[in-house]
Amino acid sequence: MMNEKNKAAFLSEIIRTRKSVYADDFLAKEIPDSILTELIINATWAPNYKCTEPWRFVVLRGKHRKALGTFLLDYYQREWHEKDFPPSRYEQTRHYPQHATMVAIIMQRSLKVNIKEWEELAAVACAVQNLWLSCTAYDIGGYWDSSEAAILYGAQLGLKKNERCLGLFYMGYYSPKQAPPKRRRKLLRKKLSWSE
């Protein structure tokens, strides 16, 4: 059992080392169902106003890897100008999800309690952060793709009237040799003030 100081240090390390790892860096190694389940359970422990738990998660693997690649290619060919999406990117886009496990992030608006939408959006974002931090603890890469293409793909998953897709969370194992990103935060004095 970790003591209080070790727990705090471990948590700080997880928070500060969380990063975006994109699907083209994922290895051909499946995340076991037991770990996926644990990650989603951690997501569901996010704070949420009036305990509405305004989220639903759909794990996408198997046929979705090819289907999503095709969907993304079709979407970018249709919606983007060729100078922004040249033919040289077509194959990379088609194969982009091939090693990823995707989770569709679905916001479920409460039908029983009258809650402002921003509060339920905030709760879902907290759930995604829990998921992301849990991936970091398991040395699993991930990122939240909230692009229109990702949202449209998730919207095809049989959503109810009170549901809305907020994007896809990509996750997968990646090489530990991958160079850490150069990340920084603005000076704390620019973001923190005290009023007593």
- How many DSSP H or I helices? 6
Give helix % range. Answer: 25-40%
CATH class of the domain at 21-60 and 99-175, please?
Alpha Beta
Radius of gyration: 19 Å
Shape verdict: globular
What's the SSE pattern?
A: HHEHHEHEHE
Low-confidence stretches: none
Strand order of the largest sheet: 1-2-4-3
Helix-strand category: alpha+beta
Strand content: 5-15%
Q: How many angstroms separate the termini?
A: 37 Å
Instruction: Report the mean per-residue pLDDT as an integer.
Output: 94
Describe this structure in words.
The structure is a single chain. The mean pLDDT is 94. With 196 residues, the protein is α+β, with helices and mostly antiparallel strands. The chain has a domain at 21-60 and 99-175: NADH Oxidase, CATH 3.40.109.10. The chain is globular and about 55 Å long. It has 6 helices and 4 strands, in the order ααβααβαβαβ.
